[in-house]
Amino acid sequence: MERAARLLTEIVDAGEAATFSELTQRTGLAKSTTSRLLLALERARLVRREEGAYRAGELFVRYAWRSSSDAGLARIAQPVLERLGATTGETVNLGVAHAGAVEQIAQVDSPHLLGTTNWVGRRVPLHASALGKVLLAFGGAELPPGHLERCTDRTITSRAALAVELEEVRHRGFGVTDEELEMGLIAIAAPVFRTSGSPLAALSVSAPASRLTKPELPAATAACVREAAALSHLLGHRPVTDRSRREGEGAA
Description:
2 domains, Beta-Lactamase
């Protein structure tokens, strides 16, 4: 127990992911002992393995973010954003609803010069952004009163038309903005859920429309949806499947 506690303390205190070699060196434990203890800690969700390195596990993450600020959420989400950025090669953002708009709280930049903009701290209209459409569609934000701002010639400014669009977002599980926020900019986004199942944030991939074309869009969309689900899972969300729903109804 003492050796497991020492190993766990090293992982938590490290902040960044620690490799197997680093952990054996810091703790002075034999490799076989370190391996056995890491497996046990991983099974208990006290540590998680990412590309051969170890971080604090799901239980620590869920506890840490409950009273956390947006900055805390951004720290927890950073590895997910980096993974999505590496997969797509495009700009990745995490956004939350704030004062009738979307505020982007974390970003991973694209390696391309064209289309690289720092969106962190900027607020954009809910109805004109992929992040905002997702938050609206899943009940994580509400439209402010008044007219819908026209950002480009392609912005949806009719509340009725937007309601139809949001229904499509709910049905397919992701949102798209196609030159509705800025001309030449296309983005896709997927919801990030908290333990209760309510939306906490949205994760997006954005790029110039000349680069994120129709042939590339499905792969980028699938990656975004997958990583948003992974972040939701990390935060404690467990989606209700048809099977679990039937079992619950049977128990009732």
